[in-house]
Write a sequence for this structure.
């Protein structure tokens, strides 16, 4: 523990009453993912805050009940989070050549990306409190775009504007071709593709894209040389258009 | 010799709850609409009460309450009883949404000067007799009264007012950075006084 960690730890109470600004909240949630003591403290403080909340008592309008009961008929409950499964040992190879065609076109079409840090924020394994990825998935304003990849598997990107982040769910994505990696991008309203992380294969867990997704108009996935690129050098194998998100 | 224990199995349930909220949530996760209706009936007054207290505008509060329950339905499977009571999960979800709503409205109103003409504030008088007389509510009020003034004020401004700890510090003339400590200290005392979250 250093001084910074101590500072972060002290945010637990303000976090429990949602009194952090968005930057602090993000910082603390990153911290929570790796600090069991803070997770336990926040959980215990939430018991106290919910008692405070219980002091308030107001009947919602009767019509709300009917609306909700009708509304849930159209909403599918999310499946439980299951323990990570063992990755398959044999992976399908992808038709790489097909994607690599139009490489030059892609570079010109997609424009030049800003230089971003390429950090793949792998979700912390089920150690407890909600991770940022979980928050995105659970956000009421979470919108999902699902596309079919060239190999026939499907992948989804879920973006929550209130959380400001996006999450990739791609269980069946096969390993990237040798010497290559998958790179995710977030497209800015101006059309720039900003690096949002690298991955070598699909994950059984949702994966948080790096960077602020609040104003992103789309997310993309390309195959890049190992180590990633600052801007896409190949045609995207998947483009997740947030305008089509539901 | 038998002795009194605070709350059985750490599962606080609203008055008259025959069925633990956690079990209802588990059934919601399996798509059981009747359990959802029961969950709503058991918890709607306190959820809406909290949302209305934070949001204040009745029309917006109604929207938020609706969002809260839809989210609860959709994400019921993510509730983990190892991490706390089901009621706390639901109230935490409600509070987060209510606060996010007032903050969003606040930033929108900076650009939209007509906002205040459109919203109508109604006199705030939501605390019904039922809550006043509940034993739990009385214990919570007593525990809150035992906090230091600054702890209580900071906690209430943050929780019911939906203000950030930085805003709370300014409102209470506290040095920057100390409101978060007061809030945390106050919550810990409240938690320990109520014997929850152990």
């Amino acid at each position: 523990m250093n001084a910074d960690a101590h500072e972060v730890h002290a945010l637990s109470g303000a976090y429990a009453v949602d009194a952090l600004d968005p930057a602090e909240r993000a910082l603390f949630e990153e911290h929570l993912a790796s600090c069991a003591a803070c997770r336990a403290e926040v959980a215990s403080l939430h018991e106290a805050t919910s008692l405070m909340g219980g002091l308030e008592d107001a009947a919602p309008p009767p019509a709300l009940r009917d609306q909700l009961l009708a509304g849930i008929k159209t909403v599918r409950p999310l499946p439980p989070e299951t323990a990570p499964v063992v990755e398959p040992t044999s992976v399908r190879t992808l038709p790489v050549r097909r994607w690599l065609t139009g490489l030059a076109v892609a570079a010109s079409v997609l424009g030049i990306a800003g230089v971003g840090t390429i950090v793949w924020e792998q979700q912390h394994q089920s150690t407890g409190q909600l991770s940022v990825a979980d928050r995105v998935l659970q956000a009421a304003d979470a919108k999902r775009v699902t596309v079919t990849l060239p190999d026939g598997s499907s992948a989804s990107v879920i973006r929550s504007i209130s959380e400001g982040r996006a999450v990739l769910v791609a269980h069946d994505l096969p390993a990237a071709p040798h010497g290559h990696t998958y790179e995710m991008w977030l497209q800015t309203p101006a059309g720039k593709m900003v690096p949002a992380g690298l991955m070598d294969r699909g994950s059984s867990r949702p994966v948080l894209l790096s960077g602020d997704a609040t104003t992103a108009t789309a997310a993309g996935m390309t195959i890049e040389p190992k180590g990633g690129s600052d801007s896409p050098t190949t045609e995207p194998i998947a483009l997740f258009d947030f305008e089509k998100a539901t | 010799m038998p002795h009194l224990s605070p709350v059985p199995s750490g599962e606080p349930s609203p008055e008259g709850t025959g069925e633990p909220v956690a079990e209802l949530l588990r059934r919601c996760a399996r798509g059981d609409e009747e359990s959802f209706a029961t969950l709503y009936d058991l918890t709607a007054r306190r959820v809406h009460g909290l949302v209305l207290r934070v949001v204040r505008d009745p029309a917006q509060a109604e929207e938020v309450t609706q969002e809260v329950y839809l989210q609860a339905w959709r994400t019921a499977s993510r509730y983990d009883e190892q991490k706390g009571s089901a009621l706390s999960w639901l109230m935490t979800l409600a509070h987060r949404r209510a606060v996010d709503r007032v903050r969003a409205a606040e930033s929108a109103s900076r650009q939209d000067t007509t906002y205040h003409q459109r919203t109508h504030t109604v006199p705030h008088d939501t605390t019904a007799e039922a809550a006043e007389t509940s034993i739990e509510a009385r214990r919570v009020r007593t525990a809150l009264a035992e906090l230091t003034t600054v702890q209580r004020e900071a906690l209430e401004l943050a929780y019911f007012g939906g203000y950030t700890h930085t805003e709370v510090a300014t409102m209470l003339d506290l040095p920057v950075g100390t409101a978060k400590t007061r809030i945390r200290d106050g919550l810990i005392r409240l938690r320990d006084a109520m014997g929850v979250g152990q």
